[in-house]
Amino acid sequence: MSELADIGVIGGSGFYEFLDFADEVLVETPFGPPSDPLVIGSVAGKRVAFVPRHGRDHRFPPHRIPYRANLWALRSVGVRQVLAPTAVGSLTVDYGPGKLVIPDQLVDRTSGRVQTYFDEGGAVHVQFADPYCPVGRTVAIAAARATSWDPAEEGTLVVIEGPRFSTRAESRWYARQGWTIIGMTGHPEAVLARELALCYTAIALVTDTDAGVEEGEGVTQEEVFKVFAANVARLRDTVMKAIEDLPAERACPCPHALDGMALPFELP
Fold first, then answer.
1. What structural domains and CATH numbers belong to the chain?
2. Catalytic residues
3. How distant, in Å, are the alpha carbons of 42, 44, 144 from that of 243?
4. What phi, psi does 23 have (nearest 5°)?
5. What values do phi and psi take at 190, rounded to 5?
6. Biggest distance spanned by C-alpha atoms of the chain
7. What is the pLDDT of residues 10-22, one digit of tens each?
């Protein structure tokens, strides 16, 4: 089933519309089915595979998303570069709702999620000092500017277990560490992509300020969905531009993440 697509997008159902001549593709993986069948179509002359992170009906809460199946399915159809638009909260007054952030660092504060493909058959330790593709980040920043955003060109995304939002004390503690945005889905996506030697780039839309940043009633799901809906068209434009500009040849460290390692199984 390889080479059906080159670029993968993991996002919400609002992204379906950018694929031309889309077809559904059922993919079985050793880790169960992905969130939904892949949708594969064309964008700017490139073949793109899309998977809705939470499922089309948003049935998977953040801690139940089949992350391993999603990334494995994308690689199995030929994907080697992944763009991951996501909604996040802000831990700083500098980033208000509607701000776009291209993070360069990640902090894992989840618990209980399976976060590796290599949990048996021998130890495999991937390099993860810089969790996002440097080329993908550069392309995403330029794409954001080209589509009228003023993006934050760096930031640290702290990923919490969810599905609840943070307490004020937690939020203030995260902010004191210098972390700038907060979400529930960026991990283990990024590390699983690295274990498959994929390029992975997060494109984070701020939908709210977290509970400890400003006084008020705290974050609500209604608020998050409202801001995301108001910005999803612009976010789609940025993703489309990034797809158009991603280079065909990967001149970054990501393809070499597993070089010299004895893997317990063959990658798709």
1. 7-250 (3.40.50.1580)
2. 208, 210
3. 10, 7, 12
4. -125, 145
5. -65, -45
6. 52
7. 986 556 566 656 7
